[in-house]
Each structure stands twice: as structure tokens, then as C-alpha cells.
């Protein structure tokens, strides 16, 4: 480690200590690993972050750099990119002398749909959310709503509270929310009977 004493917060709120903490965060170390390097438990580091803003800021500043690099790499992967692959060959000519030859190949990395989906779901979640799951949940809630409404209309149930709760949860836009009356039709029969 350095000249810092293990676990003494005073040593870590110095300029040198904060630079070390920031560097570890920039290198991608987790809070648990940083706490280990300092010689404390992760819980103690959490207390220090709340108590000493300089430590919290050093961690944030270091992590922002890495986060930005990962964001850039994800975006690059999502969009696809080109690069040049350089191979160097050493050959012996007819006179026994070494001759270097470079071969440059242009490589194209196709856009990655998984990276695109991940980016869009996180950046534009309302538009790119997992709609299938949302639709399935809504259908299940609508089925339960319909079952409860049928019981109510058949006179098997008198309590509207569950029906109202199911309707609220399902977000259903069914129009037939009025209380049952003699003109309601059930299974093709008039009057619920």
C-alpha cells in the first residue's frame, strides 16, 4: 500500500489519499475492493462516503470516467465500427537479409442488436420497454377482472372492492363498469337467470 495507515480516515481525506481512491474507482474497482485496499469494511466506506464529502466525490469522479468509457464502448458496439488490423511478417530474402512486410486488412464489426436493445431500453425505456411482458400482465389482469365481473353479474358476489381493485391494477379501458341490472346479459340469457 502507501504510507497510509490502514483504516484511518484522516489519511484518506488528504490529497494523496483521495487521488488513490479516485484512481481505484477509475480502474473499475468496486466499493468492496476499494474498502479492502483502504483496510476497512465496505460498510465503513459507506459511512465515510456519507460523513466525508471529499471521499464520496473522489469515488464519483473516478467512476464517472469508467462509466463514460463503458457508455462509449457500448454505443460503438451498438452502431458497429471499422478498424485496421495490421500484421507484420519477417521474411528472409534471397541474400539472407531480414525483410519486414506489413499487411493491413480493413475489418468491419457489424452493429450488435443486443447492444442496441440494451441502449434503447435504458435511454428510451417508455418506447422500448419489454412490451410483451406488459401486455401479458395486462391480459392476465383483464381476465381476472372479467371473471370477477361475471361472478358479480351472476349474483355470486356482492363485494365490489376486489372488482374495483382489479380494474385499477389492470388499467383496463372496459366501458361496462356500471353496476349489474336486469338488462345485463350473461351467457346469452337475459336478467342473469
List the helices and strands and how they pair.
Layout: H1 9-12, H2 15-26, H3 31-38, H4 42-51, H5 53-79, E1 81-92, E2 98-109, H6 113-123, H7 125-128, H8 131-153, H9 161-170, E3 185-186, E4 189-190
Antiparallel strand pairs: 1-2, 3-4
What is the gist of this entry?
The chain is of the alpha+beta class. Helices cover 56% and strands 15% of the residues. Among the domains are: 9-77, no CATH class; 131-190, no CATH class.
Characterize the structure shown:
This protein is α+β, with helices and mostly antiparallel strands and 193 residues long. Among the domains are: 69 residues, no CATH class; 60 residues, no CATH class. 56% of the residues lie in helices and 15% in strands. The chain has 9 helices and 4 strands. The radius of gyration is 32 Å and the shape is flat.
Main attributes?
alpha+beta; 56% helix; 9 helices; 193 residues; two-stranded antiparallel sheet
Proportion of strand residues: 5-15%
Structure summary, number of beta strands: 4
How is the main sheet built? Answer: 2 strands, antiparallel
Let me know the average pLDDT. Answer: 79
Low-confidence stretches: 172-193
- Report Rg: 32 Å
In spatial order, strands of the major sheet run 1-2
Tally of helical segments: 9
Q: Structural class per helix/strand content? A: alpha+beta
Shape: flat
Order of helices and strands: HHHHHEEHHHHEE
- Secondary structure: helix percent: 55-70%
- Amino-to-carboxy terminus distance: 84 Å
Amino acid at each position: 500500500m502507501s504510507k497510509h495507515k490502514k483504516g484511518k480516515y484522516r489519511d484518506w481525506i488528504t490529497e494523496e489519499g483521495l487521488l488513490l481512491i479516485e484512481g481505484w474507482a477509475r480502474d473499475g474497482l468496486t466499493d468492496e475492493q476499494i474498502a479492502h485496499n483502504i483496510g476497512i469494511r465496505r460498510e465503513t466506506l459507506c459511512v465515510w462516503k456519507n460523513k466525508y464529502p471529499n471521499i464520496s466525490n473522489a469515488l464519483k469522479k473516478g467512476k464517472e470516467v469508467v462509466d463514460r468509457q463503458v457508455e462509449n464502448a457500448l454505443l460503438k458496439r451498438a452502431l458497429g465500427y471499422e478498424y485496421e488490423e495490421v500484421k507484420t511478417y519477417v521474411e528472409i530474402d534471397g541474400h539472407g537479409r531480414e525483410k519486414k512486410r506489413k499487411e493491413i486488412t480493413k475489418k468491419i464489426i457489424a452493429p450488435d442488436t443486443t447492444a442496441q436493445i440494451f441502449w434503447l431500453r435504458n435511454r428510451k425505456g417508455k418506447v422500448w420497454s419489454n412490451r410483451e411482458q406488459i401486455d401479458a400482465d395486462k391480459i392476465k389482469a383483464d381476465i381476472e377482472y372479467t371473471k370477477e365481473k361475471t361472478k358479480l353479474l351472476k349474483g355470486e358476489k356482492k363485494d365490489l372492492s376486489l372488482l374495483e381493485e382489479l380494474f385499477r391494477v389492470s388499467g383496463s379501458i372496459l366501458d361496462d363498469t356500471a353496476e349489474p341490472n336486469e338488462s345485463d346479459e350473461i351467457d346469452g340469457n337475459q336478467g342473469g337467470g
